[in-house]
């Protein structure tokens, strides 16, 4: 006798479906962040409204994807076009959350799965804003680093394998910021033909990061960061910038690494790790300081600020985004994300040259793409690489 097959819906399948539905809802909120964060608007008030006619949106206007489709991509009230980005962001978030729930079962990974969903949202929102404004808001990245460290603490307490614990999250954040800021430092130095910066930031900025690179190579990450922050305090006490030539700091780091490779000091690997982590710590301190500094002056009725500072330089949103990725994924997957980002950026750049396109895309979206690859397939790719090396 034939027994009819009855499909069983397992708890894991139900969680994947639930995660996908949750992602659609979070994607709708992500669109709010993409629109309001660059404009400095409150993300909670006023309630959702049409950006063209300001009419408050009803419940039927806010159903992810389906509202856009049913309205034909136009506002119900003023018929102004609604960007296709809205349903795309919602769909991508739903698919991303479902994929994370499938690869990192919440019943097994626990808080770690939720943390990866938070990371996915930060990456998607940051990329969309970067494509629009060529900036990544501090309001997104700096709390993102803190959340990554918090989830690292939760992962460690729950004994989650494959995701960083508290120490791993801190190390990943510092190395993430340190690698990108070091590339920026040496790249800028070369492009300036080894000339000094015209206006070093007061009281803390790139000079302190360069000093932390050199000090961290010899003293380790925390003492190196302490030296960089001490330099900022000296500037405050002197009420001016005490210049430190980059030939001494950046040039000194290159000499230090060569000495380390020859067997002097702690050794080349430890020196590079210490330098990058120290620079990452100081760069995050810079990010927090300048974020608070600019917020205070924006709120002070446009008060004039006589501090000479290169705003585009001190933004370094990619540095803070790399710190977020390192905090959530750990240093190994961070390095994989950087490799993927560099290759993707290079391919896109070559394609632009071939098509003679003048569209400019910053590094943030490529870094986010690399992070998604590292998130979803990092374990298998890193395992294959280790097997190839016989490790």
From TrEMBL:
It is found in: Cell membrane. The chain crosses the membrane at residues 13-35, 86-104, 110-129, 141-160, 166-186, 222-238, 247-264, 270-292, 334-354, 366-385. The keyword Cell membrane applies. It is a multi-pass membrane protein. The keyword Oxidoreductase does not apply. Its main location: membrane. Residues 21-102 form the Prepilin peptidase A24 N-terminal domain. Residues 117-235, 244-350 form the Prepilin type IV endopeptidase peptidase domain. This is Peptidase A24. It comes from Deinococcus actinosclerus.
